[in-house]
Amino acid sequence: LKTICITEDNSNIEIVDKVYKSKNNYLDINVIIPQIKGLNNNKQEKIINDKIIKWTQLWIGDAKGIADEYFKDNPSPLISYQLYARYKITNKDDIISFYIDYYQFTGGAHGITNRVAYNIDVATGNELKLEDIFKKDFLYKDVINNEISRQIKKDPDRYFTGKDGFNGINENQNFYIKNKKLVIYFELYEIAPYASGISEFVIPNKIIKENMKYYKV
């Protein structure tokens, strides 16, 4: 197992790899997910780690079940089905941010990637929603929606339009912190075609900084 030390102000916190690997004639599983060690709140640490494991195991279990059932009565494919996952740590200060990219290929023209991000308050161990990083009365949705709309207008051909396009962030909006900046992201097909990839929008600090609870973001 690989251990990554969180060194920026949080030297006691580590990220440890948890590995799921197996391979047969029709399914290749190569999955590495993170587990957190060293948070002051042991209970919250366990809750987050268990959540990551449960999501991963369900994802693997669903795909494996489908593959096992199908190839029970059919020949193995020329290209094996694939389950592949890796994670990336993007922030290490007041908030520890990381995301896991889960890639699944089960035939067809291409695979599909789901990104699952986690943002953890180091002081409390709590997992944060987007609203939690802002001061209470800040109209963060309006500010972020305006900024994302501005960025989309710079390259509109990359995105869907109308009801299939961007119509504002939601209560459980996906995000992470990277290089001390807020990144809002949307899954494949959520607001754009597959060719556009996972849509990411870096929100400039100058339009939100005074209303952040976390000053190192």
Explain how this protein is built.
It is a single chain. This protein has 2 helices and 9 strands, in the order E-E-E-H-E-E-E-H-E-E-E. By secondary structure, it is α+β, with helices and mostly antiparallel strands. The strands form 2 sheets. It has a 6-stranded mixed β-sheet with strand order 1-2-3-4-5-6, covered by helices on one side. The longest helix has 30 residues, at 42-71.
List keywords for this structure.
single chain; 217 residues; six-stranded mixed β-sheet; three-stranded antiparallel β-sheet; 2 helices; 9 strands; 34% strand
Summed up:
The chain has 217 residues and is α+β, with helices and mostly antiparallel strands.
Helical proportion, percent range? 10-25%
Provide the spatial order of strands within the biggest beta sheet.
1-2-3-4-5-6
> Quick one: how many beta strands?
9
The outline comes out as flat
Averaged pLDDT, please?
94
The H-and-E topology, N to C, reads as EEEHEEEHEEE
Using only C-alpha atoms, the radius of gyration works out to 19 Å
Annotate the secondary structure layout:
Layout (H helix, E strand, L loop, with lengths): L2 E4 L6 E11 L3 E11 L4 H30 L9 E12 L2 E11 L6 E10 L18 H15 L20 E4 L2 E6 L12 E5 L14
Parallel strand pairs: 3-4
Antiparallel strand pairs: 1-2, 2-3, 4-5, 5-6, 7-8, 8-9
